TrEMBL record, chains A, B:
SUPFAM superfamilies: Homeodomain-like (SSF46689). Residues 33-52 bind DNA. This is Transcriptional regulator, TetR family. One of its GO terms (molecular function) is transcription cis-regulatory region binding. The lineage of its organism: Bacteria, Pseudomonadati, Pseudomonadota, Alphaproteobacteria, Rhodobacterales. The keyword Transcription regulation applies. Residues 10-70 form the HTH tetR-type domain. Keywords: DNA-binding, Transcription, Transcription regulation. It holds the Pfam family TetR_N. It comes from Sulfitobacter marinus. Coiled coil: none annotated.
DNA sequence: TTATAAATATGACCGTGGTCAATATTTATA
DNA sequence: TATAAATATTGACCACGGTCATATTTATAA
């Protein structure tokens, strides 16, 4: 019973997303205004909200696709042999996520997929990232007493913690990568620490 | 060179906060409108923003004070003897933090103290919580190969992860406390796991 | 007491995300 | 090809957080 998705619809949607990319690349994520997007795309404001439930939905698509690009690269890597590799591999993604306070906030807000039925693009990338990490963990010299999925979720939790503290005035004297190293060593190789 | 804080100022501020409490207790946090607060407090809208930089600042005060009450209770507890105790102790606080999606979002947004000079009330509670947890960890039968502060920060990271996943449509089949148990056992007692 | 300066309060106004009934366009049907 | 139904677009309008020049109150000094 699904039919009739007019090509006009696709075109409008693509135009909106393209305009958004353009604005973001010149002014940054936080500076994007719906008003400006529709103006650049030459459609009415209401059209925007006919295509996206809200502004965040558009940001999710755009930020999610950025994250996916990073995950593509990560999937092409050979499994990290130690925690330093882990951190080096994850660095570009974490750098993007902290590139703007606004970006980090949007990611945080949607990492839990809200209470919606639909899983949003960003929540999907989180899910995907856990699977990538779990794969690495199964293949590498890491503790096996805990399920790889749990370890992977833990790494994600630590990464978020590090990024959050990076924005924090109290805690940002310890560089983000240094802190990540402390966490990962303790989390992944408990027997080697001390 | 600081002087002249009129008692009128304190009165107005107190009135605003009291009105906010009143509204929140009857309609919830997410339903609070600045308009309604000033109306209840019988002041002009501009007055609100003369007392608080923005709406979030008020929410921070209110939510922060709630969290502080929980921390007061935690400080009165005897140190937890195992991870189950940990989870039981933390449960009321985590319950509050997830009582509303809006509350959790505000907390997340300010846990990192933003980029401001001033450390906000919520960031302070996070700092305080880490110290409480670190104290427990030093006193109890937990791994000593990692600094207590790092362990404590880890617990905080896991708690946030559990709460975020609790809101998530993909991951909420595993109850929040169950998940926390998995994390904490692996994090605090790596030798006992498996 | 009155003049003056500093602190506080006011409310009209603005920016921006989001809504919705009306209109226009496309597709399906006769 | 005409007409009806479904789908997409429009833009005036609203909600709500936040601003700021002006007015009012309070503290200080003569």
């Amino acid at each position: 019973m699904k039919k009739a998705v007019q090509k006009r619809t696709l075109a409008t949607r693509a135009k909106l997303i393209e305009s958004a990319w353009k604005i973001i690349s010149s002014k940054g994520y936080g500076a994007l205004r719906v008003e400006e997007v529709v103006q650049d795309a030459a459609v009415a404001k209401g059209t925007f909200f006919a295509h996206f439930p809200d502004k965040d939905a558009l940001m999710e698509i755009i930020i999610g696709s950025k994250i996916d690009t990073h995950l593509d690269a990560l999937e092409r890597q050979t499994p990290p042999e130690n925690t330093d590799d882990f951190i080096r591999y994850l660095q570009p993604l974490m750098l993007f996520m902290t590139s703007e306070r606004y970006v980090f906030d949007v990611i945080l807000r949607h990492s839990g997929a809200a209470a919606k039925e639909e899983i949003g693009p960003i929540a999907q990338t989180f899910d995907r990232q856990v699977r990538v990490l779990a794969q690495w963990l199964s293949d590498g010299p890491y503790r096996k007493d805990v399920p790889a999925m749990i370890l992977a979720e833990g790494i994600q939790a630590f990464a978020i913690q590090c990024m959050a503290l990076h924005f924090c005035a109290i805690n940002n004297e310890l560089p983000i990568q240094k802190r990540m190293k402390l966490y990962l060593d303790a989390w992944l190789c408990p027997q080697n620490v001390s």
